[in-house]
């Protein structure tokens, strides 16, 4: 049991410690490069390996993706109403209201709590949220809600 906990939590803690030391030493950090690595290599690799290794039930995957999109849509509408009432700018606040940060810590914890099948479903949720974040979220944040902005991202 302890070995399983360690194998899942240790990489997360190790990366956090490396980040802390990096910051303390004030070493340069190329955020754009790391972002590109995660978006274009890390996340797709995780998605494909999770789907190939675990052979998920695609009905469950489609239900997770559908629920993710439905909940994000409902929260976006509620957030828009809330922001309108408070007279706050949509482009500043709305993207963070309907697209949560679901990767990083959440995926290893889903693996620990629910096993490989849970990780696969969590990856489906992460993928759907990422698509929303990098399409609708970026479009709203730019202040230009258009299909051109969505498809360019």
Identify low-pLDDT runs.
none
Distance between the termini: 42 Å
**With helices defined by DSSP (H or I, 4 residues minimum), what is the helix count?**
6
Strand content: under 5%
Radius of gyration: 18 Å
Main sheet summary: none
Please write the string of helix (H) and strand (E) elements.
HHHHHH
Total domains: 1
Q: Overall pLDDT, averaged?
A: 85
Globular, elongated, flat, extended or rod-shaped: what is the shape?
globular
Q: In total, how many beta strands? A: 0
What is the SS-derived class? mainly alpha
Write the layout of secondary structure elements.
Layout: H1 2-24, H2 31-54, H3 58-86, H4 90-98, H5 106-142, H6 147-152
Helix pairs in contact: 1-5, 2-5, 3-4, 3-5, 4-5
